[in-house]
Specification:
- The protein is mainly alpha-helical and 449 residues long.
- The chain has 17 helices and no strands.
- Helix 4 runs antiparallel to helix 11, helix 6 packs antiparallel against helix 15 and helix 8 crosses helix 11.
- The chain is globular, with a radius of gyration of 22 Å.
């Protein structure tokens, strides 16, 4: 028995992350290229400037309620599997297998491919390589960042800090240009200008705002790797959400100051239009580089956290045991990183021939994502009842009000995503059902931890 325990300890994640590392990872994964895509949709569905700004504030508040729930779960049940571990503890291995299946086949690898394509699209504009430039760049980016994470956690987090430093500079340039530089061109904006939206839908606006806020829950996957222990997860999550909300507000106010609400609603690329209006064509080149950096920052963290869920799956199911190997020297799940990278590259190749866009991938992933987000919220109630004696360094304040609000909102988002997405959602659900069928044939490994 002692030999088994020793072996398990050697192959498990070791505390290697400082608080600042964790905050950088979470802020980096959330503040991505989506902030350059979604503001125009939010503006289209906002009746006036007040509601436009209020929707972003509401997105931060909703994310904060979720972060408080995740803080309790992460501090009480720290594990590299994150949501996977919470769902397994609350609902059993078959259900957690379904979650891990969905991440591998739908949500996580799909997110990696989308982010890689965003960076690839902008790099292709700066230096085209032919008909499939975006795919070449996207594939090269995924392979490169996967190799970076295979080299080890210190190298990976070091690169993330570099990306974040460049990202902070980019945010400052955008905000300063939006508030301090007088627009030098008005023709483009006036030709795009439209009246205030008449088909405003705050609910739809909120869907896209929360899509832009998405990713903070990835903190759960690094809860076992904090040097200070999981008791500090609440500090990591709350600090990250506050930083993210502040950045989003400043960037959107900058866009709003230059373009106005109707100008944003009419724009297909608010960042490009704002920078062209303030800094000219040089600003357009600059925004292309900034969007690429934003996408790379999110992509690097998505690769980092995604492989850890695959690692947890490999620890529990013998046919996938190769995923459950942890390289202690590099402090990373090397096999999980490799499989994740291969699947993402396959999706990129597929995307090179279909190219049905960002919206199609949102259709594909959103219902599955919100279903499991809802279930993770419910797991908080289940585990309070099922394991009341487990030490909880952090407890959600105002329980059960805040967890109930989070669960209710997840249910609303699940309904909204199913009603809006249509056919794309059916494909994602079909893959989920395939995973449910596969779960009956899996061979659970004995839990020796």
């Amino acid at each position: 028995m002692k030999e088994k325990v020793r072996h398990t300890d050697l192959s498990a994640p070791a505390p290697a992350l400082r608080l600042i590392d964790a905050i950088v990872l979470i802020v980096g994964i959330v503040i991505g290229a989506g902030i350059f895509r979604t503001p125009s949709v939010v503006a289209t569905n906002s009746p006036d400037q007040f509601w436009f700004v209020a929707t972003w504030v509401l997105g931060g508040i909703i994310s904060l309620t979720g972060a408080l729930c995740y803080s309790e779960l992460s501090s009480a049940f720290p594990n590299a599997g994150g949501d996977y571990h919470f769902l397994k503890t609350a609902f059993g291995k078959r259900f957690s297998f379904l979650f891990a299946w969905s991440r591998v086949t739908v949500t996580q690898t799909g997110s990696i491919a989308i982010l890689a394509y965003i960076a690839g699209d902008y790099l292709a504009e700066l230096l085209p390589l032919g008909a499939y430039s975006s795919a070449f760049y996207a594939g090269a980016i995924v392979i490169s960042l996967t190799l970076v994470n295979i080299l080890g956690i210190r190298f990976g987090t070091g690169l993330q800090k570099l990306f974040m430093a460049l990202q902070i500079i980019g945010i400052l340039i955008i905000v300063l240009a939006g508030f301090l530089v007088e627009p030098t061109t008005t023709v483009q904006m006036s030709s795009r200008a439209v009246d205030a939206p008449s088909n405003a839908s705050i609910g739809l606006a909120l869907i896209f705002v929360l899509l832009t806020f998405g990713g903070w829950n990835e903190a759960a996957y690094i809860s076992a790797e904090l040097k200070t222990g999981s008791r500090k997860m609440a500090l990591v999550l709350v600090t990250s959400i506050l930083i993210i909300t502040l950045v989003y507000l400043l960037m959107n106010l900058a866009f709003l100051n230059v373009l106005g609400l109707s100008g944003m609603a009419a724009s297909e690329a608010v960042g490009v239009d704002m920078m062209r209006a303030t800094l000219g064509e040089k600003g357009v080149i600059l925004i292309g580089l900034l969007v690429s950096i934003f996408a790379l920052t999110s992509l690097n963290t998505t690769i980092f956290t995604g492989a850890r869920a695959n690692y947890a799956l490999g620890k529990d199911f013998s046919p996938l045991a190769f995923l459950g190997k942890w390289d202690k020297e590099k402090s990373s799940p090397v096999n999980s990183l490799i499989l994740q990278g291969v699947i993402a590259v396959v999706l990129i190749v597929f995307g090179a021939f279909t190219r049905n866009g960002f919206e199609a991938m949102v259709d594909f992933t959103a219902p599955v994502f919100w279903f499991f987000f809802l279930c993770t919220g419910l797991s908080l109630f289940v585990l309070r009842k099922k394991q009341p004696d487990v030490p909880r360094p952090f407890k959600v304040p105002l329980y059960p009000v805040i967890p109930f609000l989070f669960v209710a909102f997840c249910a609303y988002m699940l309904y909204s995503s199913l009603s809006v997405t249509g056919t794309g959602a059916l494909v994602g659900v079909a893959l989920l059902l395939t995973g449910w069928g596969a779960s009956f044939f899996r061979k659970p490994m004995d839990d020796i931890r």
